[in-house]
Amino acid sequence: MSETDPIQLFADWFAEARESEINDPDAMALATATPDGRPSVRMVLLKGHGPDGFIFYTNLDSRKGAELAANAHAALLFHWKKLRRQVRIEGPIETVRNETADAYFASRSRDSQLGAWASYQSRPLDERVTFERRFEEMSRKFDGQPVPRPPRWSGFRLTPKSLEFWSDRAHRLHERRVFTPSADGWQEGLLYP
Predict the structure, then answer these.
(1) Which of 63, 123, 157, 172 is catalytic?
(2) For the residues of the chain, what is the DSSP string, one character each?
Protein backbone atom coordinates (compact mmCIF):
# COMPACT_ATOMS: atom_id res chain seq x y z
CA MET A 1 0.00 0.00 0.00
CA SER A 2 1.33 3.37 -1.02
CA GLU A 3 1.11 6.39 1.20
CA THR A 4 0.74 8.56 -1.90
CA ASP A 5 -2.76 9.70 -2.74
CA PRO A 6 -2.98 9.72 -6.57
CA ILE A 7 -5.84 12.24 -6.52
CA GLN A 8 -3.64 14.69 -4.63
CA LEU A 9 -0.67 13.84 -6.84
CA PHE A 10 -2.81 14.67 -9.89
CA ALA A 11 -3.89 17.96 -8.27
CA ASP A 12 -0.23 18.84 -7.63
CA TRP A 13 0.85 17.99 -11.18
CA PHE A 14 -2.15 19.83 -12.63
CA ALA A 15 -1.30 22.94 -10.60
CA GLU A 16 2.24 22.83 -12.00
CA ALA A 17 0.89 22.39 -15.52
CA ARG A 18 -1.37 25.43 -15.10
CA GLU A 19 1.73 27.46 -14.28
CA SER A 20 4.02 26.11 -17.01
CA GLU A 21 1.90 25.09 -20.00
CA ILE A 22 1.12 27.99 -22.33
CA ASN A 23 -1.99 26.54 -23.94
CA ASP A 24 -4.77 24.50 -22.39
CA PRO A 25 -3.17 22.63 -19.50
CA ASP A 26 -6.68 21.24 -18.93
CA ALA A 27 -6.79 19.61 -22.39
CA MET A 28 -7.06 15.85 -22.27
CA ALA A 29 -7.52 13.10 -24.82
CA LEU A 30 -10.75 11.21 -24.22
CA ALA A 31 -10.89 7.67 -25.58
CA THR A 32 -14.22 5.91 -25.94
CA ALA A 33 -15.34 2.78 -27.75
CA THR A 34 -18.46 1.34 -29.27
CA PRO A 35 -19.98 -1.77 -27.66
CA ASP A 36 -18.18 -3.90 -30.27
CA GLY A 37 -14.82 -2.33 -29.40
CA ARG A 38 -14.28 0.27 -32.15
CA PRO A 39 -12.25 3.04 -30.48
CA SER A 40 -12.28 6.77 -31.04
CA VAL A 41 -10.36 9.58 -29.38
CA ARG A 42 -10.62 13.37 -29.25
CA MET A 43 -9.47 16.29 -27.12
CA VAL A 44 -11.80 17.71 -24.46
CA LEU A 45 -11.28 20.03 -21.51
CA LEU A 46 -11.19 18.96 -17.88
CA LYS A 47 -13.77 21.01 -15.98
CA GLY A 48 -13.57 19.46 -12.52
CA HIS A 49 -11.53 16.92 -10.60
CA GLY A 50 -11.32 15.50 -7.11
CA PRO A 51 -11.84 12.32 -5.10
CA ASP A 52 -15.15 11.66 -6.86
CA GLY A 53 -13.65 11.77 -10.36
CA PHE A 54 -12.82 13.81 -13.45
CA ILE A 55 -15.52 15.88 -15.18
CA PHE A 56 -15.96 17.09 -18.76
CA TYR A 57 -18.99 18.36 -20.71
CA THR A 58 -20.42 17.63 -24.14
CA ASN A 59 -23.47 17.21 -26.30
CA LEU A 60 -25.08 13.91 -25.33
CA ASP A 61 -26.00 13.29 -28.98
CA SER A 62 -22.38 13.62 -30.13
CA ARG A 63 -20.36 10.59 -31.13
CA LYS A 64 -18.64 10.50 -27.74
CA GLY A 65 -21.98 10.92 -25.95
CA ALA A 66 -23.51 8.03 -27.89
CA GLU A 67 -20.46 5.82 -27.32
CA LEU A 68 -20.47 6.56 -23.59
CA ALA A 69 -24.20 5.81 -23.38
CA ALA A 70 -23.59 2.43 -25.05
CA ASN A 71 -20.28 1.61 -23.31
CA ALA A 72 -19.87 3.52 -20.06
CA HIS A 73 -16.09 3.18 -19.80
CA ALA A 74 -13.42 5.59 -20.98
CA ALA A 75 -9.79 6.59 -20.73
CA LEU A 76 -8.24 10.04 -20.33
CA LEU A 77 -4.73 11.18 -21.19
CA PHE A 78 -3.07 14.41 -20.10
CA HIS A 79 0.21 15.29 -21.80
CA TRP A 80 2.17 18.23 -20.43
CA LYS A 81 5.06 18.58 -22.87
CA LYS A 82 6.89 21.33 -21.03
CA LEU A 83 6.87 19.33 -17.79
CA ARG A 84 7.69 16.12 -19.67
CA ARG A 85 4.87 14.32 -17.90
CA GLN A 86 1.67 12.55 -18.72
CA VAL A 87 -1.18 11.03 -16.74
CA ARG A 88 -3.41 8.19 -17.94
CA ILE A 89 -6.73 7.59 -16.18
CA GLU A 90 -9.22 4.79 -16.85
CA GLY A 91 -12.59 4.00 -15.37
CA PRO A 92 -16.37 3.91 -15.64
CA ILE A 93 -18.38 6.96 -16.69
CA GLU A 94 -21.64 8.41 -15.40
CA THR A 95 -23.51 11.60 -16.22
CA VAL A 96 -23.28 14.40 -13.68
CA ARG A 97 -26.33 15.62 -11.79
CA ASN A 98 -28.51 18.18 -13.57
CA GLU A 99 -27.63 20.79 -10.96
CA THR A 100 -23.93 20.31 -11.66
CA ALA A 101 -24.41 20.61 -15.43
CA ASP A 102 -26.68 23.65 -14.99
CA ALA A 103 -24.11 25.43 -12.82
CA TYR A 104 -21.26 24.83 -15.26
CA PHE A 105 -23.37 25.79 -18.29
CA ALA A 106 -24.33 29.06 -16.58
CA SER A 107 -20.61 29.85 -16.09
CA ARG A 108 -19.85 29.62 -19.84
CA SER A 109 -19.71 32.66 -22.09
CA ARG A 110 -23.00 33.57 -23.75
CA ASP A 111 -21.61 32.74 -27.21
CA SER A 112 -20.55 29.29 -25.98
CA GLN A 113 -24.03 28.76 -24.55
CA LEU A 114 -25.62 29.78 -27.86
CA GLY A 115 -23.18 27.55 -29.73
CA ALA A 116 -24.35 24.58 -27.69
CA TRP A 117 -27.90 25.25 -28.85
CA ALA A 118 -26.85 25.84 -32.47
CA SER A 119 -24.69 22.74 -32.88
CA TYR A 120 -25.88 19.27 -33.80
CA GLN A 121 -22.47 18.03 -32.68
CA SER A 122 -20.97 15.20 -34.76
CA ARG A 123 -23.81 15.32 -37.33
CA PRO A 124 -23.05 16.06 -41.01
CA LEU A 125 -23.02 19.76 -41.91
CA ASP A 126 -23.64 20.81 -45.52
CA GLU A 127 -21.69 24.07 -45.23
CA ARG A 128 -20.32 26.38 -42.54
CA VAL A 129 -22.90 29.08 -43.25
CA THR A 130 -25.69 26.72 -42.11
CA PHE A 131 -24.14 26.54 -38.65
CA GLU A 132 -23.56 30.30 -38.58
CA ARG A 133 -27.25 30.87 -39.43
CA ARG A 134 -28.33 28.51 -36.65
CA PHE A 135 -26.12 30.46 -34.25
CA GLU A 136 -27.81 33.71 -35.31
CA GLU A 137 -31.25 32.08 -34.89
CA MET A 138 -30.34 31.08 -31.33
CA SER A 139 -29.04 34.60 -30.66
CA ARG A 140 -32.43 36.00 -31.67
CA LYS A 141 -34.37 33.30 -29.81
CA PHE A 142 -32.65 34.04 -26.48
CA ASP A 143 -32.19 37.79 -26.99
CA GLY A 144 -32.51 39.66 -23.70
CA GLN A 145 -32.83 36.54 -21.54
CA PRO A 146 -30.56 33.95 -19.93
CA VAL A 147 -29.64 30.99 -22.12
CA PRO A 148 -30.80 27.74 -20.46
CA ARG A 149 -28.82 24.52 -20.74
CA PRO A 150 -30.00 22.47 -23.74
CA PRO A 151 -31.59 19.17 -22.69
CA ARG A 152 -29.11 17.24 -24.87
CA TRP A 153 -26.06 18.85 -23.22
CA SER A 154 -24.52 17.64 -19.96
CA GLY A 155 -21.39 16.44 -18.27
CA PHE A 156 -19.71 13.13 -17.56
CA ARG A 157 -17.68 12.04 -14.56
CA LEU A 158 -15.02 9.37 -14.91
CA THR A 159 -14.39 7.50 -11.67
CA PRO A 160 -10.75 6.40 -11.72
CA LYS A 161 -10.00 2.69 -11.46
CA SER A 162 -6.45 3.17 -12.69
CA LEU A 163 -4.16 6.22 -12.70
CA GLU A 164 -0.72 6.10 -14.27
CA PHE A 165 1.81 8.91 -13.77
CA TRP A 166 4.57 8.96 -16.37
CA SER A 167 7.71 11.07 -15.97
CA ASP A 168 10.37 11.50 -18.63
CA ARG A 169 13.85 10.35 -17.65
CA ALA A 170 17.19 10.40 -19.46
CA HIS A 171 17.96 7.66 -21.98
CA ARG A 172 14.27 6.69 -22.13
CA LEU A 173 14.51 5.21 -18.62
CA HIS A 174 11.16 6.78 -17.78
CA GLU A 175 9.26 6.37 -14.54
CA ARG A 176 5.74 4.90 -14.60
CA ARG A 177 3.78 4.82 -11.35
CA VAL A 178 0.38 3.16 -11.43
CA PHE A 179 -2.37 3.36 -8.81
CA THR A 180 -5.43 1.14 -8.45
CA PRO A 181 -8.12 1.20 -5.76
CA SER A 182 -7.72 -1.14 -2.82
CA ALA A 183 -9.87 -1.93 0.19
CA ASP A 184 -8.14 0.73 2.28
CA GLY A 185 -7.24 3.38 -0.28
CA TRP A 186 -4.88 3.03 -3.24
CA GLN A 187 -2.33 0.41 -4.21
CA GLU A 188 0.77 1.75 -5.95
CA GLY A 189 3.04 -0.13 -8.30
CA LEU A 190 5.64 0.54 -10.97
CA LEU A 191 5.65 -0.41 -14.64
CA TYR A 192 8.64 -0.90 -16.89
CA PRO A 193 8.99 2.06 -19.27
Answers:
(1) 172
(2) --S--HHHHHHHHHHHHHHH-SS-TTEEEEEEE-TT--EEEEEEE--EEETTEEEEEEETTSHHHHHHHHS-EEEEEEEETTTTEEEEEEEEEEEPPHHHHHHHHHHS-HHHHHHHHH--TTS--S-HHHHHHHHHHHHHHTTTS--PPPTTEEEEEEPPSEEEEEE--GGG--EEEEEEEETTEEEEEEE--
